[in-house]
Amino acid sequence: MEKNTYVFGIETSCDETAAAIVKNGTEIVANVVSSQIESHKRFGGVVPEIASRHHVEQIIAVLNETLEQAGLTFKAMDAIAVTKGPGLVGALLIGVNAAKAIAFAHNLPLIGVHHIAGHIYANRLVKEMAFPLLSLVVSGGHTELVYMKEHGSFEVIGETRDDAAGEAYDKVARTLNLPYPGGPHIDRLAAQGEDTYKLPRVRLEEGSYDFSFSGLKSAVINTVHNAEQRGEEIVPENLAASFQASVVDVLTEKTIRAAKEYGVKQVLLSGGVAANKGLRTSLENAFADFKSIELVIPPLFLCTDNAAMIAAAGTILFEQGKRDGMDMNGHPGLDIEAF
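RE: above sequence
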């Protein structure tokens, strides 16, 4: 009988202090997330210094709660996995140093995980991966199409040239005087409105899988300012619906085209914006008629930052024999292709 593999994951790349235990890379044993949204809301975005201080305050409690939830100790673990980048450097260092301390104290292998790889592997906690596959990663800091021919192999075939989709959502929400984080509020408003404003669908040059949302964001801001100058009333629900339709149309179209060209068996949706109902519905409708391509969308709690995804990705690295030393550092600009 094969021994089960337990990996303890830690995630502190931005404003969530999280820890989790995953069994065999596919089963969540415990998953704890301490969010800082209320602390950052009044500033309209994440303040790095405040995020780091909260991580220091919360990390021990989160680690202990994870062990308690699982009914296990570190002696039962096979490895410690931690996000080493990308992210806010101060925030990353809290998790990295906690992981190094645990690994050293309990003589456990230390495994550094790429944050975006974690988001992709969150899907393995829902459905086993089938290669080759394509992942659409959409978050506050990243919008990418990542092709994988096997476990641990990442090829970025498309990425944002300016604002990430999540970043554009937050900036448009601010223009509409909606609270931070803006994505969920835009999504909610969009469901109540109609696509009545003529906003651009930026597809870039023919054949490109890259994204650009800066022009769309500017178009929304100009629409609001022009209406104010003319004394016209903006219908927030319709503007939100028009903005979201523009984003979702481009994301869906490029994902379908790439999935066909690369002949993938699966398409995975990953990242915080994967929680967006408009995007989820658009992809589900688009791939409904594809018999040879399976669409996998994680539940909402696995879309936002969490440590279960880090433990899931870390399990693959552990099985591949990859290890990090006690000199591991936080890497805010870590490249997934060089990872």
